[in-house]
Amino acid sequence: MTNAGATGIGDSPMTLLADVSARDGASPRDTTGIDLPCAAAVGAVAVNAMSVDVEDYFQVSAFEGHIRRDDWQHLPCRVESNVDRILALFAEFEIQATFFTLGWVAERYPQLVRRIVAAGHELASHGYAHVRVTQLDEPGFRADVARTKRLLEDIGGTEVQGYRAPSYSIGAGNLWALRVLEETGHRYSSSIYPIRHDLYGMPEAPRFAFRPAGCERLLEVPVTTIAVAARKLPCGGGGYFRLFPYAFSRWALRRVNRRDRQSAVFYFHPWEIDPDQPVQRGIGMKTRVRHYLNLGRMERRLRHLAQDFHWSRMDRVFLSTSARERADG
Questions:
Q1: I want to staple 191 with a disulfide (CB 3.0 to 4.6 A). Which of 118, 128, 163, 170 is the partner?
Q2: Using one digit for the tens of pLDDT, what is the confidence trace for 15-30?
Q3: pLDDT tier at 290 (50, 70, 90 boundaries)?
Q4: Contact 204, 172 (CB under 8 A)
Q5: Gap between the Cα atoms of 170 and 143, Å rounded
Q6: What is the DSSP string of 270-319?
Q7: Does the predicted model carry a pTM greater than 0.70?
Q8: CA distances from 89 to 114, 116, 305 (A)
Q9: Cβ–Cβ contacts within 10 Å for residue 210, how many?
Q10: Residue ranges of the domains in the chain?
């Protein structure tokens, strides 16, 4: 199921990597000397984690300089109808997934949250208003994640165990956030992207799930990458899934399952299946390409993905006792 290495939350990012195996395909051990399982599986078939970051088109970090948060309430919202389309698609393919949901969305669409839970999906946190962790100090982050966890649990009537930082904004400079997540009752985070990117990323981080040193109950589960030569290439969804041909994504995820013997983590956003969303004016070419590229092809690619792989919720792939027993066995 997971590949966990001993890591640290210290001043230097190298502390994070201190006891991680030098070879990504190996099975590192945690500080107790106990091997952690590598991949959740049903029989010989790997089970991967499907996740959705529930936010609307105007809430993405790339639009921060163009759309004020104070204006969100005045813009046409499309998140509810888009999530309902996703729920229908998942029902068609009998997929249960994890929905990392903004508190802002949950407050305005509580019935949507309840439909997510009623369909058997996992409800998890994406923070309240999509504020990047790099923009918060420790008290501000603690207040944000505690508030959102309580809000989602009150609306959904279920425990919230997982958290994903907006724009994968936990990295070398704010690893203290992982400790805060554990202290506020979260059991896992999926907030570090182990790639080099102009807006986020921590390329020196492990490719697969690890337990940070200083955290006894929190697991960090990075979005999936593949190792090609000395580089890590993204293959876990988002804009890269729309940019690269589907054949690349299929090849990369199969390689992770078969060669690395790991469960993959895939993510996308509701606005990525919505080519009819309002187009923002005055944005740069890079932002325009990243946001709007191949939106019309996204749902078809998701259908291929649903057919080509086995999927489940983040908690069942990475936390459940049964998944660990299957992986060991």
A1: 170
A2: 333 223 223 333 333 3
A3: confident
A4: yes
A5: 16
A6: GGGG-TTSPPPSS--HHHHHHHHTTHHHHHHHHHHHHHHSEEE-HHHHHT
A7: yes
A8: 17, 13, 12
A9: 27
A10: 6-328
